[in-house]
What we know:
This protein is of the alpha/beta class. It has one domain: HUPs (Rossmann fold, 3-Layer(aba) Sandwich). 44% of the residues lie in helices and 22% in strands. Strands 3-2-1-4-5 form a 5-stranded parallel beta sheet. Helix 1 links the parallel strand 1 (4-8) and strand 2 (32-39). The longest helix is centred in the middle third of the chain and has 19 residues, at 56-74.
Amino acid sequence: MYQKILVALENGPADESLIPHIIQLAQLCHSRLLLVHVADGWAARHYDRFKLSDSKEIIEDRAYLEAKAVQLRAAGLTVDSHLAMGEPPSEIVKTARNEGCDLIAMTSHGHRLIGDILFGSTIDEVRHSTSIPMLVVRANKAA
């Protein structure tokens, strides 16, 4: 059913709520996974423009993606990873489209109105910007 799943990772505790679902779904559907994290700090947002070298954030994000890829490969899955840089919603949608993904998987923190106004809602922006189906998993309260 799903041949290639984009898994949007935050590099935080919420990812641990998503990964078990992704493992089961990918095993069931024999899907390939594309792990994506969007670095959005100042250096990441201006990386190409100013030809910057890797910041601490970028180095840590690459290492995190590789560690998660190793974890998922150990579960027998085919996994690639991609570190995008810039605005998370637009980079997630662009990467999913460019890579031919047929599902986008993300976590939700369960913000309501005020929380979305204060923290923004990457999920809302992604869902309004793509026709690719989405799997949204609620992050554990501790995340």
